[in-house]
Write a structure and sequence with these properties.
Order of helices and strands: HHEHHEEHEEHHH
């Protein structure tokens, strides 16, 4: 189990069900992932209501429990034991939200692969090239950028109503290229952070991540984010 797989599954669900989603759903779910991570990825763990409400700035228990129950109904949380009140902990598991046998693959990628097969008459091997879905123009991604990570990032930007114009895409790729020049692997770490935190821009990992994949203990680069910034 890892945070990226859980994040990917969540945003696939958001993309398919935009009418159901509220930012509080995302906040509660990702706080559960963070809490599970701190506990060493336990299969079942206590998830205190009041602690979560304090961390996320949710004032009313009835508001919190509404979004919590939605996550249970949608099977992102498995409720092992229900809390007696808001001051005790629900016992939950997030294992049920893990993708099974690759089922969380982006549907747009699958459709594009099928279309590519039909157009060239091939049935066994296809080459899926990234396409800007707003302009229908092919995107030339540098080899160091993980195409699946990139697709997830574009989905997040679309969810946040960011414009994926050719100019915006080129600006993002140029920023990632500059990061990669400084340290191998930084570009993908930057994209992963943006997907995990629902950011529409890309930012240098700085001290939060070592680009060889080892985690450092430091603050996140939230201070680098400017509200409403467009790329």
């Amino acid at each position: 189990m890892n945070g990226y797989d859980l994040s990917r599954t969540w945003f696939d669900f958001c993309f398919d069900n935009p009418e159901k989603i509220n930012p509080n759903h995302t906040a509660i779910y990702f706080f559960a992932i963070e809490h599970c991570n701190r506990l060493g990825w336990k299969k079942k763990f206590g998830f205190p209501s009041q602690m979560t409400m304090d961390a996320l700035g949710i004032k009313k228990h009835q508001t919190y429990i509404k979004y919590f129950n939605d996550l249970v109904d949608w099977k992102f949380f498995q409720l092992i034991q229900k809390s007696k009140n808001q001051y005790s902990a629900n016992i939950i598991s997030i294992m049920s939200a893990m993708p099974k046998n690759g089922e969380a693959l982006d549907k747009a990628i699958i459709k594009h692969a099928a279309k590519q097969t039909e157009s060239n008459g091939q049935s066994n091997s296809t080459i899926v090239k990234p396409v800007n879905k707003e302009t229908n123009k092919p995107i030339t991604l540098p080899e160091f950028i993980d195409s699946k990570l990139w697709d997830d990032f574009i989905l997040v930007r679309k969810k946040l109503k960011a414009e994926n114009t050719d100019r915006a895409i080129n600006t993002l790729i140029n920023k990632l290229s500059e990061m990669e020049k400084k340290e191998n692997g930084c570009a993908n770490k930057s994209i992963e952070e943006s997907v995990m935190n629902s950011w529409k821009g890309v930012f240098p990992p700085k001290n939060q991540w070592q680009c060889d994949g080892q985690r450092k203990m430091s603050n996140s680069p939230v201070s680098d984010i400017k509200a409403g910034a467009k790329f």
